[in-house]
Amino acid sequence: MKHRGPDWSGLYQHGDCYLAHQRLAIIDPASGDQPLFNEDKSIVVTVNGEIYNHEELRKKLAHHKFRTGSDCDVIAHLYEEYGEDFVDMLDGIFSFVLLDTRDNSFVVARDAIGVTSLYIGWGLDGSVWISSELKGLNDDCEHFESFPPGHLYSSKSGGFRRWYNPPWFSEAIPSVPYDPLVLRRAFENAVTKRLMTDVPFGVLLSGGLDSSLVASITARYLAGTKAAKQWGAQLHSFCVGLEGSPDLKAAREVADYLGTVHHEFHFTVQDGIDAIEDVIYHIETYDVTTIRASTPMFLMSRKIKSLGVKMVISGEGSDEIFGGYLYFHKAPDKDEFHRETCRKIKALHQYDCLRANKATSAWGLEARVPFLDKEFINVAMSIDPEAKMIKNDEGRIEKWVLRRAFDDEEHPYLPKHILYRQKEQFSDGVGYSWIDGLKAHAARHVTDKMMFNASFIFPHNTPTTKEAYYYRMIFERFFPQNSARLTVPGGASVACSTAKAVEWDAAWKNNLDPSGRAALGVHLSAYDAETPLSNKPSKVIDSIPRMDFPGVAIQS
User: Fold this and answer.
1) Known binder of ligand: residue 157?
2) H/E stretch holding 203
3) Taking burial as the number of CB atoms within 10 A of a residue's CB, which of 107, 128, 307, 440 is the most buried?
4) Is the pTM of this model over 0.85?
5) Is 204 annotated as a binding residue?
6) Alpha carbon distance 248, 218 (integer Å)
7) Mind listing the pLDDT tens digit for each residue in 292-318?
């Protein structure tokens, strides 16, 4: 797993306990090598993540002596003071293992939403294994699984407990009136706290709403930060896409408006196809939409790292929080709209977070996601969902509450047409050629006979298309264990919905497809209800709405 942290390798042994760490140095590169310790080295920690409120926490631990300037150095000392109950005090993204050598107990925890990846496994000899990736466990464990986000595992109790218990988690319907300035301030705070870095960084910019807002706020507040003093106040932005992509054009327009140093990377369909096996190996999934989306992000991350950049700020999570996917147009009422956003946020660690973390970590690059800030989520998910409902007759398009919050006439964040830019299909020369290329490649490797017997070969999450079958074959070659295939989600979905939301429209049940055009009656180019999906022209089947993961100018 050296790809995740090429800056330092740390190994610690205490009896039959081993802690190993590959470090990607973002804060205090000079002295923050791991493992990290408390004063007498009785508490040992390895951690992947960033603790944005570490300076505030250090003040609460003023009587403690810190060995490094690392933001993660507070973890061992917080455990000394508060025991296992300290985790909710951390504001950031993290996966850590903490060993208390005084009694040989250990604690494992993962951040609230699961931005950082983490897995847990058990050996036949009674051993417990923890790893940031499947490939650290699959050859040594009898059983392994994804470590649940917002949870803590304690060796003393031998089980999990949820430490993250926000009001929205119960899916109770909130009633706080929408206040655009409150939402704006909350997101600005989420972005600015992520400017904490001791290394060069940038933003991923696709020209869509989410990535453009992240870039705009970063550019607006960068000048007064420590990062600007070290690396300069001019922001760098990054975008990737097929030649001639309309999103590349939009990203250039936003970059020019904000005055960023813009880096545009191009890839070909063949470049993407050539990378598929590496993508599946690193992302560790066979989910079709995740692989489609991860491939350009994987290619872009390599380019960004080659420029000496080690951290990027990205825009994942907005569509889940605000109901930005096309199928939300069919939400029957505000209650079901809100419950679906809750379900989508809870599943992010299996999809967009998985992609953002692993596609970047494959090249020693870190992605930070301000939309998934704990405090921002609490603010956004407390809003009466009536305000989030899509009402075209009132001019309220998807994510209207977010757009309105940043519609400032005096000090505009973005040009109006970008701020109110709807989710768009890609033109034939961009999205179609990429996805069609993938399907054509898969068709050359998967026969009709293979598809006929797919349910016997892959009884769990049986692939229903040749593209899905092709990805599954590659995944099973790398990760043949049953535990591995169980870590990948499945079930009915239309336009990236949960299975529950498929019930919103009877026509959807016969048109199950991740494409946005499967949202019948919503998209202008939606599938017609009479024709089964298998008979659709490939250019219709495979065109899907841009999920607006910043910097990647293709559909996922």
Assistant:
1) no
2) strand 201-204
3) 107
4) yes
5) yes
6) 20
7) 999 999 999 999 999 999 999 999 999
